[in-house]
Amino acid sequence: MSSVDIxxxxxxxxxxxxxxxxxxxxxxxxxxRINELVREGRIKEDAILTLYEEEGELxxxxxxxxxxxxxxxKERSIERLTTLFSKGEISxxxxxxxxxxxxxxxxxxxxxxxxxxxxxxxxxxxxxTSLGYLSRYLWxxxxxxxxxxxxxxxxxxxxxxxEKMAMNLLLEGIAITFLFVYLAMAVIxxxx
Length: 192
Hints:
By secondary structure, the protein is mostly helical.
């Protein structure tokens, strides 16, 4: 299994997230879930495979085969490093650190048990954005109360997390400003 295979699985997983779930930023959600598994002590490749299996696209046997291929790939890396070290192309300290890291990854993979696939169904978890799930909808109040100025401020703050929502906030600010101006003109000309 090469890094190309893992990147292909990652891309397929991203497509699943884009089609199956209604997230504004599926790539951020996917990366968040991968990082959660990495924080639990898994290596990144295994985290991707676990999420792919959970989505019902990878059987237990397929995951076991891929896991063995990853282990063999890491063992070949050790052999290449040993060859480079024996030729004197790398020094002893970087060699030891690299071998130690690779051996830890291999041990993690070997110790990890493969759990059966769970049925895939959408979860309604909080979307991991810096805006937060509830507070993201509170941003719509800013242009409502402050018009165009509120729309511009909300746009500038929200655009890094969600470009589409930021544009909607700006358009809301413009629309509210025109509505205020229209109502003010109607009142002024109605009652001189």
